[in-house]
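FAQ: What does a multi-protein file look like?

Like this. Sequence, then tokens, then the next protein.
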Amino acid sequence: MITSRLVTLATLAALVASHATLACSRSEGVDQDPHATAASSSSLTTKAALPSRTSSCDRVTGQSVCSEYSGSYLAQNEAVLSSSCGKLSGAFVGAECPNTSVLGSCTLATGEVRKFYASGGAPYDATRAEKECTGPYKGKWTTFR
């Protein structure tokens, strides 16, 4: 029973992913010859750089941080990231973090970009934000300009 549900969910996920990939490749604006073969059409899609999606977990209101995810890390972990965000009282959205009151950002080894804010529920100052980034997170700090 559980196995059949997992197979159904995996099949549904694969279908949604393939549909999203097809929709993205069509929206790229690549002019394709309607008489082109499937092989040449496929090579056009492969050569065109697909846009990178960005999603974020906005926890500015409660914790004064917001995390951005993109690329393969987002693609491979989106369900977990979305679920975890909700458990942390955040809002998981298909957009970048807000750029108001940002002190700086911390790029982690996973590719996550965590932004620190001077506003929200637990406002940071630049020194504390940088120390948190380079200390426990072992990230690369960038001051917001």
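And here is the next protein:
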Amino acid sequence: MPKVNLLATFSPDRYNKISINGAQGLLRLLCLEQGQSVPLHKHSNGDEYFYVIKGKGKIKIGEKEAEAESDCIVKAPAGVLHQWKNGPQRLILLSVVIPPLSYEVADEATKMEFV
């Protein structure tokens, strides 16, 4: 099984989006060097959840801005502008995008069957 530190790659030019084990776009690592940012954007058809794996950065969601550090979980709802700004150290985020229409399907898929 791959470890996050082995998957994380950084670029001096811009942040990196890294797909995890072939997960097509819905699950990825975001790797930011010092001072890098993710541009202000939105996902019209999906909520984006972030888990801060390493480092600390500022997240702007709509009009609100807050600091998030290791072990924080943050949600950017579908259709709401959001942006990450990194500070003086590397920042590694786990990003999961979930289309709101799939919540019921996801709940069904995660039900455990006991044997």
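Q: Is there any per-entry metadata?
A: Some entries carry free-text notes. For the entry above: DSSP finds two helices and nine strands in the chain.
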